[in-house]
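Example 3.2
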Amino acid sequence: MESLWIVYWIGIFASFVFACYNIIKKRLVSGTLHALITIAFTALSVIIGINSGYTGKGQDEFTYFVNRLFSLKFDSVLLVVLFVLMLGFNIYHIAVFYEQSNV
């Protein structure tokens, strides 16, 4: 399970580096939004993790998060929305990069 967290944080870091790369490549609006969403996602993930009360209840982190998500708790829904936006920006920037490399 620990290796999954390593992959998770490497993915978040790679997304932030990719956002910074897009800022440098003069895609200021989308790159800045991508970087801000990545920072907000990371901060919210850490805050939810610190404030969560899943320890001692016989649940792991994932089960706790899914239960909160199905209960439509605001922080869990916001985390999913930020993740989808971050993923969308990554896909958009990869498509733009691919398109420019084929011209």
